[in-house]
Amino acid sequence: MTRRWLRWLPAAMVPAALTAAALAGSYQAGAAVSLPGKSAAEIIAMIGRSDVRALSGTLRQSSELGLPQLPSAGPLPSARPGANQGLAAVIELLGTPHTARIYLDGPSKARFQIMDTLAERDVVRNGKDLWLYNSADNSAAHITLPDAPAPGTRTPHAHVPADQDPKTPEMTTPEALAQRFLAAVDPSTEVTVGDPTTVAGRTAYQLVLKPRSTGTLLDSVTLAVDSASGLPLGIQLRAREQAAPAFSLAFSDISLAAPESSVFAFTPPRGASIEEKTVTSPVPVPESKHPAPGTHPAATRPTVTGKGWDTVVAFPAGVLPAGVRSAPAFAQLTQAVPGGRALSSSLVTVLMLDDGRVFAGMVPLERLQAAAAPQ
User: Fold this and answer.
1) Which helix (H) or strand (E) holds 197?
2) Which of 26, 120, 152, 270 maximizes the CB count within 10 A of its CB?
3) E strand or H helix at 180, and its extent?
4) pTM for the whole thing?
5) What HEC string does 295-332 produce?
6) 10 Å Cβ neighbour count for 346?
7) Treating both helix axes as pointing N-terminal to C-terminal, what angle do 40-49 and 174-183 enclose, rounded to 10 degrees?
8) How much is the CA Rg of the chain, to the nearest whole Å?
9) Do 177 and 319 have their domain in common?
10) Residue 359: which domain range?
11) pLDDT tens digits along 180-217
12) Residues whose CB falls within 8 Å of the CB of residue 139, separated by 6 or more in sequence, listed in order
């Protein structure tokens, strides 16, 4: 999936969208922890008040999604925007644990280093400079970001591929995921408090989100929230009828002190191939924006059916990236179904029809097929 897909996925479907960004970690409950009692509402309020803007740490990610075993996906994607992106990166991310180092210092300084077995990928932002680097082929992309847009403006992305949206390096962290899942909390979700735990040496409360619906593949979401700062330190997603967490992301070590400024200074290694990109300046967005003549937004934007955890997103024909269906691993990763092919995991199902339409949700395949059937 590309970042273009991620923009339309509801919060309850974030695990599927994780294939668009490379990231991080799992956590295990440690020895018994004693903390002052707090209600679910109080823990959520802690997250809302958290003002952590600088940190450094190690993130670890693990997945047990029940996907078929596949041979090596081959070389890692190039850092150059739009080069060699696609299904190989999706497979590599879904089926392989990952470790990453993350450094943050305010909204304009960030570094994310994904440590693969034989290579390293970096996303580095320092002010208006954004670098993407892949040591596997010694390739780099340098993107000059525009000034921060004023109210009522937007940054056009037509000049940079959607899967390399340079608006800001959206590094997926426990905090980012926690905010998305908490935004999805409504009467369809039971929210309780679990036992206190320890993550990365810090005591944490556990907030448990459990869908009330039986029509979703998701059993529960558990957030580990730092008892001192309110910063989410870890997240686990459990699928129904599966003992091990289907997805786990957490810090294994963390410091809330500002990193050294030198961390955000990036110079490509000698011999690296470098591609330069410049994002155009922000442009005004009228309060009432009308489509260009001859265009029909309803025909190009996805539609959403259902509510809460049972949500199904329907994408129109043409959204599936070119070349995905012809990729060698596509047939291995998916199964033939009437009218197309389906990717089924313990958390997310994606139905790709022969007519080009795509349906996705944290629901069984039958639910997607029903949504795709003529009304």
Assistant:
1) strand 189-199
2) 26
3) helix 174-183
4) 0.76
5) CCHHHHCCEEECCHHHCEEEECCCCCCCCCCCCCCHHH
6) 23
7) 120
8) 21
9) no
10) 304-372
11) 788 777 788 999 999 999 999 999 999 999 999 899 99
12) 78, 79, 80, 83, 133, 272, 273, 274, 275
